[in-house]
Write a structure and sequence with these properties.
This protein is of the alpha+beta class and 293 residues long. A hairpin with a 2-residue loop joins strand 1 and strand 2. Helix 5 runs parallel beside helix 7 and helix 6 runs antiparallel to helix 7.
Length: 293
């Protein structure tokens, strides 16, 4: 049976280190799970307006949607015993009212068990039961955070430099995914990939030698997960290299998709830990600490 198509929009709203979520119960399976607020796009309704409206209806929270952060993803989803081919427009949003952990009571569908604010790291873990949704939420959350960080008075220091480098990595990885989707020649893909792989290796060595020790000294938190990420990225890079040698477009497509996902997730995690540390310091002081002065 061909899945039903569904167009919808969702909001990714972070405030005070917490994400706004709704708990929904599937009316057929009875399974409960957390989701970003959102719903079906009505006829002649802009996706950003849908995201705002659905958030108010499901949570009672008024938000301002940033249309510039839009991310569109397509994925399979089963709800109430029906298989859907879903296209969701995700948007970052900010509160249009003061933050409070107490959320208003709303009158909505019976499967809506209520909204909550959950610590962002815990929220992303909870959303991971639906990997496609969790990945998109993490990416939009990263976009929103980077937009705020770039306006910080200390963004002219190493924090801004790190964001610029990471943005180049994101763009380069996305370009590779597009190239393989267009069935471009593997030789051209290899020419685009190899410089990125080499730059990533050098970047990781520099971070582990200078940046991570400084962050450890400032926070008391050893960035072990980030080092593990580097190891996973090295393995993903090697997998892309093998796929290029295999001559199989399907293998290459899968390897590049995995590489892109691992890279973006790592960059988001690293920025969440490192950027607050760098932006809390005057640029000159931050550079001196990184270089061990």
């Amino acid at each position: 049976m061909v899945p039903s198509t569904r167009r919808r929009a969702s909001v990714v709203c972070e405030a005070e280190g917490r994400l706004l979520l709704v708990r929904l119960r599937d009316p057929v399976s009875g399974v409960e799970a957390l989701y970003p607020p959102g719903g079906a796009i009505e006829p002649n309704e802009a996706p950003a307006e849908t995201a705002r409206r659905e958030t108010l209806e499901e949570t009672g929270v008024k938000v301002v949607v940033d249309a510039a952060t839009e991310l569109v993803d397509r994925y399979p989803f089963c709800w109430a015993g029906v298989d859907y081919d879903v296209t969701t427009h995700y948007f970052a949003a900010t509160l249009d009212e003061p933050f409070t952990t107490a959320l208003p009571q709303v009158v909505d569908a019976s499967y809506n068990l209520g909204a909550l604010w959950l610590a962002s790291s815990e929220a992303l873990e909870a959303l991971a039961v639906h990997p496609a949704i969790a990945s998109s939420v993490a990416r939009v959350l990263g976009r929103a955070r980077r937009a705020v960080w770039r306006t910080h008075p200390n963004a002219s220091g190493p924090g801004g430099t790190l964001l610029a480098i990471h943005d180049q990595f994101r763009v380069a990885a996305e370009r590779l995914v597009v190239m393989v989707a267009r069935d471009e020649e593997p030789g051209w893909i290899a020419r685009a990939f190899l410089p990125l792989a080499q730059t990533l290796h050098h970047h990781h060595h520099a971070e582990e030698a200078m940046l991570f020790p400084m962050v450890h000294r400032r926070t008391g938190v050893a960035p072990e997960r980030l080092v593990t990420d580097h190891e996973a990225l090295t393995a993903a890079i090697d997998a892309v290299g093998r796929s290029l040698a295999s001559g199989s477009r399907d293998v290459l497509r899968s390897a590049l998709a995995s590489f892109d996902a691992i890279l973006v997730a790592h960059l988001d995690r690293e920025e969440a830990l490192v950027m607050p540390v760098l932006l809390a310091l005057e640029p000159a002081e931050a550079w001196a600490l990184i270089h061990g002065a």
